[in-house]
Design brief:
Helices cover 24% and strands 37% of the residues. The chain is α+β, with helices and mostly antiparallel strands.
């Protein structure tokens, strides 16, 4: 029986180089919509504010095997350290490929009856890029400065003392 094409493209899952197995994964995103409704109108208008942030929920596990010397704990501890590290990291997902993400939250569960097995539920959020905005002119300060300059200029160029005497 031939191998399904999607299986040929599977990649080993990891976060910041720490490998794990994926049991379940969910990806969510969409559009940021703002519906506007107006009085005495039956037709609303929906404003599109851009794409929503991508979120990845991954149920992962680390299990003891020959790959880790039948001791899963160092891999578990390495993954926990990476999940708690500051800043974005690289998620390699088996079917979706590579993404730069931030860890929003994670849970790790270990059960007595499943010795040598740690299950993680990890909520990743697309890291994106910080947008640098140009500074906005302080119009109140600019107006006050211009007005003060005009007053000073008028006072320096005019002799108003003669007006008071007359």
């Amino acid at each position: 029986m031939p191998i399904a094409p999607w299986r040929l493209n599977l990649q080993p899952a990891s976060f910041n180089g720490v490998p794990f197995h994926v049991d379940v994964d969910t990806r969510s995103s969409g559009r940021r919509l703002v519906p506007h409704e107006f009085p005495k109108r039956d037709t609303p208008w929906t404003e599109d504010m851009g794409r929503r942030v991508r979120r990845f929920i991954v149920v992962a596990y680390i299990i003891q095997s020959a790959d880790n010397g039948f001791d899963y704990r160092p891999n578990r501890d390495d993954l926990i350290a990476q999940l708690e590290a500051l800043g974005p990291g690289t998620l390699i997902h088996p079917t979706l490929g590579q993404d730069v993400v931030e860890v929003d939250e994670y849970k790790v569960t270990e059960r007595r009856e499943l010795g040598g097995y740690a299950e993680f539920e990890i909520n990743f959020v697309e890291a994106g890029q910080q947008t640098i905005t140009s500074p906005v002119t302080d119009t109140a300060s600019t107006s006050t400065s211009a007005a003060q300059s005009a007053i000073t200029s008028f006072q320096d160029s005019s002799d108003i003392t003669s007006l008071a005497a007359g």
